[in-house]
Amino acid sequence: xxxxxxxxxVMNFLQFAVxxxxxxxxxxxxxxxxxxxxxxxxxxxxxxxxxxxPAIMGIIADKYIQPQRLLGLSHLLAGGFMLIAAYFGYxxxxxxxxxxxxxxxxxxxWPVFIPYVxxxxxxxxxxxxxxxxxxxxxxxxxxxFVKAFPPIRTLGTVGFIASMWLVNSLSxxxxxxxxxxYMQLVMSGxxxxxxxxxxxTLPACPLSQSEGKKSLAExxxxxxxxxxxxxxxxxxxxxxxxxxxxxxxxNGYATxxxxxxxxxxxxxxxxxxxxxxxxxxxxxxxxxxLTSFFLLRFGIKNVMLIAMFAWVLRFxxxxxxxxxxxxxxxxxxxxxxxYGVAFDFFNVSGAMFVQQEAPKSMQGSAQGLFMLMxxxxxxxxxxxxxxxxxxxxCTWEGGHLVSRPEFANGWQTTWFIFxxxxxxxxxxxxxxxxxxxxxxxxAEVNH
Length: 447
Description:
Layout: H1 2-20, H2 26-32, H3 39-63, H4 67-98, H5 110-140, H6 145-169, H7 183-199, H8 216-219, H9 231-244, H10 249-260, H11 268-271, H12 273-287, H13 291-298, H14 300-320, H15 326-357, H16 363-393, E1 394-397, E2 400-403, H17 410-432, H18 439-446
Antiparallel strand pairs: 1-2
């Protein structure tokens, strides 16, 4: 039994280490090679593929290829495409250095972007696939996955953090650390290949024998859209999308913002933005342990409200944060620490709301719809809008994303705009979403 848990821990550790190598710092690299204006594109791509790829791969895992094998194949493809993106990232670096003094030079996004998108398209489904493998393996081993899985999943967050620290610290003989170069893509691709090979050694997960009578719409989770006929569910999914707008903004722009201070100061925090932002993931790992207590005590609606106001603080504290003063550093640290509440409280409480309110026959589809509204549509739209706002108030100079001359506090203004948006969503949710807390019902879902 211990061996099974250990193997699943390795799987989860690598699963999120692959992601952590680039998710919060790819913007720094893009800025250094003249692709900073396209940061939002890279995060939009992640949201778009999250809309359809997990469902498609889920169907394949149910009927055609055993989940652990599909997990391995997907990681091999994702890792391979990421290494191709890294190669073109290297070429983009060479071109950027050769044209450092050429004001007319315009970097070409497509050689890096296309393999990156293909990599992400095969990676995003593996998050659900790794859960499928873990749940099935634990169940067949006679273990209660409700109790056994959370510690295993927590090690996934540890893997994410470990990758962030590595790319923040290692230079691989280059002048810059991996967080600022194509080496972050090399690390991600290499870890993906390793996990792909490792996945083929995991215990076999039998194909489902009960999905044959389901329609294509049911397999894709489209049947869950019928829940929009219920006002309460419709309001929940709409607000899930509205809050999902906030999800990827700091992933894309937090580290470029913090690093921008290195142009005017030699603060350790400005030189190690990925390490600082990793506090967000540490907070996430700790806050998930608090969600059950808060849910039972305050109820789903109040916990979701706490999460929404935490997003206001997340953005607002970035707005007043700086690496040039003690209080500014404290603000940045607090912004990172509050992320755990902002992210975990809404995702966990939202998932429990769906599990509690959706008919049993479509609970899986409803959970997929929740993810589609938040990480798919919401995150994609939010990242696109955020990119436009940042580009309006800020510009790239010498590899740093700084406020435009006509906007003395351009960066601060962008964060306050994001905070204002989160505040409006929170107030609307508080007024419009009606839901009565039922402790007995919640306890039933927890068990």
